[in-house]
Amino acid sequence: MLELEIAGESRIHEHYDHADDILDHAKGLRFIWLELTQHCNLRCRHCYTTSSPARPHNDIDWLDLLAQARALGCEGVQFIGGEPLTHPRINDYITFAGENGFSNIEIFSNAALLGEGVCQLMAKFGVQLATSFYSADARKHDAITLTDGSFDQTVSGIKLALEHDIPIRVGLINLEDEKQASVRDDIERTMIYLEHLGVSRQRIGVDNVRPVGRGSKITPFVSQSETLCGGCWKGTLAVSFDGNCYPCIFSRHENVGNIRASTLSEIVKGATLTAFRIAYAEEARANTINADCTPECNPAGCSPVCAPADPSPCNPWGCGPLCTPGTPSCIPGNGCRPSDECPPHTCPPRTN
């Protein structure tokens, strides 16, 4: 594997003008997904981790993992699941991240379990919320979550987050053929409904189901390039509920280690992850010749940067940070620089 890594670095130097910059992005850790649990209050048809109320929590020391990530210079973290709000120590994780230098903290939640206490904590530390939504029709929404009443619970959670001025982005997950007029009309009605709740249209995105977990029963796997966004070689890592590590949450076919057997530093600096990043960087670069970059980006809502969602020409190599509207405070995304007056958020949210 070390030989493959060295060979990959040689190819990068041979073919690309900014080889050192590329290799710098392909190493280290700047953003981490922590799948705190496989337990979830819902049973969504397309769930990429096959989560459900029957799944247990685990005994991974997530606080220690956060400390290890921060020691490696990581500044971005997304707590995900399952449903992260079902984890009994979620408040501890939010507090630790907020007090220990993570500048970009997000919870990806179905929002059904949001309460006053966790909202106050999120507001205190500037934690953002991401959620999925399926239709303005409660029956359609609940038919996807397979949980009666989930529509009302998620709507209540969105309202509560907005009351606390928590930045929120919503991903509309398309499980049907978007070419059909009825499907497009339902997506538009749902966007209008969310706007009426108070969600900015620029913070609402649409994406298709990825062929991962239960999603593979809806969208068959075609290729890596159509499953991943093009940016998961840029210093990202996902740690799953069982300790397995992947370059991103959807690249579960590429196991690069397990934190029960290795330290986070050993995995991040290891030959397996580095070799994947270099190889995928080449693949992503080659795919920029395709004007129809697929899928429409978005693991973690452009946290980290992902290519196809970038409003500039599709190019994983040209993305920069996206800033909070009207402020110099940047979050990962695309386009502007920290010194710029920032445009509205245009990256679609992460799916399934």
First-last Cα distance: 32 Å
Shape: globular
Low-confidence stretches: 1-8, 289-352
Q: Strand order across the biggest sheet?
A: 6-5-4-3-2-1-7-8-9
SSE pattern, N- to C-terminal: HHEHEHEHEHHEHEHEEEHHEE
The computed structural class is alpha/beta
Radius of gyration: 19 Å
Q: What is the count of β-strands? A: 11
Task: Kindly report the average pLDDT value.
Answer: 79
Number of helices: 11
Tell me about the biggest sheet? 9 strands, mixed
Structural features, described:
The chain is of the alpha/beta class and 352 residues long. It contains eleven helices and eleven strands. It has helices spanning 2-15, 19-25, 62-71, 90-99, 116-124, 138-145, 150-163, 181-197, 224-227, 264-268, 271-287, and strands at 31-35, 76-80, 104-108, 128-133, 168-174, 204-208, 236-239, 244-246, 257-258, 322-323, 330-331. The chain has a nine-stranded mixed sheet, covered by helices on one side. A hairpin with a 4-residue loop joins strand 7 (236-239) and strand 8. Helix 1 (2-15) crosses helix 2 and helix 1 runs parallel beside helix 11. The radius of gyration is 19 Å and the shape is globular. The protein starts with a helix and ends in a 21-residue tail after the last strand.
Topology overview:
Elements: H1 2-15, H2 19-25, E1 31-35, H3 62-71, E2 76-80, H4 90-99, E3 104-108, H5 116-124, E4 128-133, H6 138-145, H7 150-163, E5 168-174, H8 181-197, E6 204-208, H9 224-227, E7 236-239, E8 244-246, E9 257-258, H10 264-268, H11 271-287, E10 322-323, E11 330-331
Parallel strand pairs: 1-2, 1-7, 2-3, 3-4, 4-5, 5-6
Antiparallel strand pairs: 7-8, 8-9, 10-11
Helix pairs in contact: 1-2, 1-11
